[in-house]
Design goal:
single chain; elongated; alpha+beta; about 210 residues; three-stranded antiparallel beta sheet; disordered C terminus
Length: about 210
């Protein structure tokens, strides 16, 4: 059985949150069967089913997860009630993805001191080097105009479909002057808005 957790989004962390807050979509055998939501308050992940026709697939997935990981929910009192093994499976996938994104962001943070980093968050990245370290240019507003020109002439032409500028240290005014729309730059993991409404509005504004 093919069980996938896709379109995982993380909002900004809430004060006092005792679990990972996220939104995602659950696919079983390539069928979108439910939305997954956790508000980060230590409560179980919620599954919003897409309708009655999806219920047989969800129940099959619960049995499948119980078979491949029978001990996990027995050792964790958080997984009680409806579909405990499936919810445990979802939480594990989301947690693993979050850890992967954190490591990816740490790599970007190290690279962005010297270069412009472009790529797809969590998947791939490429660096564009300049004679001056990018962090120094970002710290000196007298060099912002030069940085804008470099973005326009040496970075944007190299960006492929779906790629973003992954730097989080470039002043916003520089990005605006370079004509970059919000969806062409990455939002730090700790600042992401789970609804994605701003990004969708920006895309419709193309």
């Amino acid at each position: 059985m093919k069980i996938e957790v896709k379109n995982i989004l993380f909002p900004a962390p809430k004060k006092g949150g005792s679990s990972l807050s996220f939104r995602a979509k659950l696919y079983i055998n390539d069928v979108h069967v439910a939305a997954c939501i956790n508000y980060g308050r230590g409560e179980p992940t919620i599954l919003l089913k897409k309708g009655t026709p999806c219920l047989p697939l969800i129940l099959q997935a619960q049995l499948h997860c119980a078979h491949i990981q029978p001990s996990r929910t027995n050792q964790n009192m958080a997984y009680t009630g409806e579909l405990p093994h499936l919810r445990a499976f979802i939480d594990e996938r989301v947690h693993n993805f979050y850890q992967h994104l954190q490591k990816f962001q740490q790599a970007v943070t190290a690279l962005q001191k010297e270069s412009i980093v472009i790529g797809i968050p969590g998947k791939n990245l490429t660096t564009v080097l300049f004679p001056s370290p990018i962090q120094r240019m970002c710290n000196n507003f007298l060099e912002w105009q030069q940085l804008t020109v470099l973005l326009l002439t040496q970075v944007l032409p190299k960006m492929k479909e779906g790629e973003l500028i992954l730097n989080t240290n470039i002043p916003k005014v520089v990005l605006v002057q370079a004509g970059l729309k919000p969806y062409r730059t990455v939002v730090p993991l700790t600042e992401r808005n789970s609804s994605g409404r701003k990004e969708r509005r920006a895309r419709r504004g193309l």
